[in-house]
Amino acid sequence: MNRLLLLLPAFALTAACCQAPEAPPEDSVKPGINDSFLDPSLDVQDFVERFEVESREIFSERLAIVAAVDVQEGMAIADIGAGTGLFVPYFSQSVGSDGKVYAVDISPGMLEHLHARKADEGWSNVDVVPCSERSANLPEDSVDRVFVCDTYHHFEYPRATMSSIREALRDGGEVVIVDFERIPGVTRAWLLDHVRCGKETVITEMRSFGFELIEEVDMAGLSENYLLRFREQ
Questions:
Q1: HEC states along 142-201?
Q2: What is the dihedral of CA 152, 156, 158, 164, to 10 degrees?
Q3: pLDDT over 50 at 115, yes or no
Q4: Structural domains in the chain, sorted by start
Q5: 116-162: per-residue pLDDT in tens?
Q6: Is the CB of residue 103 less than 8 Å from the CB of residue 128?
Q7: How far apart (Å, rounded) are the C-alpha atoms in residues 70 and 92?
Q8: pTM of the model as a whole
Q9: Residue 216 Ramachandran class (φ > 0 left, ψ -120 to 50 alpha, else beta)
Q10: Is the distance from CB of 144 to CB of 173 less than 8 angstroms?
């Protein structure tokens, strides 16, 4: 017995040494990227007028984008960075009364706007969810689709955020990312400054987070944006 007790500290030390070291904290990839959306004086109507117009290709191609996401009746989908709620009514109709839409945003102003639209438009199958800079704040195993439209470049801590999204995805679930092309000499100067990375970097990052690229959907109406579909590896 005494010999066993003498061996226990050595065993504990060996076990501790064999544990994998914790990953270092993730640094912000673009500090302050969401400051304007966190501003209490945010004018949501200004964003409605800027985002929900035919001159914005995401708006003009919204039905084709919804079709590409392939949401079926009874599914659950999370719209990460739902913003003004452009896609929410389409997803709500697609999933039906047995499905669920999580309208997720980090902006208090946008969340208030989404709550108001939910009440006014009777979105009975929609939950409005406040997220944080590091987490989508979704229940585990809760969604079949995650839709990230012109929002991935606003993920200040993409590894942490995507980790939370992986936990929320059900088996066979997919992540659909729509974001801006970033091509020097082609992309508008404002976008080059605002968007931190191009499509290839997004694909590389997503693979490092445990996702595989299923498809890049070729959409004739998208020139400034691309649409990618991912699934867990």
A1: CEEEEEEECCHHHCCCHHHHHHHHHHHEEEEEEEEEEEECCCCCCCCHHHHHHCCCCHHH
A2: -100
A3: yes
A4: 33-232 (3.40.50.150)
A5: 999 999 999 999 999 999 999 999 999 999 999 999 999 999 999 99
A6: yes
A7: 13
A8: 0.90
A9: beta
A10: yes
